[in-house]
Amino acid sequence: MGFFLLIPFFLVRFPLLAARSKDAISRAAHFPPLNGWEKLAYWVYQLSTAGIILCIRISRARTKPAALFFAGLAVYLAGLFLLAASVIHFAAPAPNGMNRQGLYRFSRNPMYLAYFILFLGCVLLTQSLVLFGLLAVFQTSAHWIILAEERWCREQFGEEYRRYKQQVRRYL
Known about the structure:
By secondary structure, the protein is mainly alpha-helical.
């Protein structure tokens, strides 16, 4: 069953993104220049992502207790919807490359937020403590990556990004 949770994730993450914009895949895969601890965070992020995918792949969704199953399904679907909307908005930045449209009006990092929500839904569906631990590591390392991206955005977009940062929260 875990395998089936990954199919919509990968379909939204790659084909939908590529269909919306030819250069969006390479932009999404771009990491800013990393300094110091950010390099370690990058590798922890990559390894925890691989661990999450593997753990979901080999796990089974549990239907009991029913309330936990339906809560997990709702969180997973919300994360999938948020990811699809994030991908669509990510694929259409302003001509200067900065994105302030769609979900980016409410969160500077809706795609990272979507990953967390989707994977949290998988945690609830599988009731896996290992997956929960991997998600905690993933989210912590993602935060360090986001800080590096914010530094890069300040350098790239200057005052426009500073104003955006004052108006829009990092996550929610």
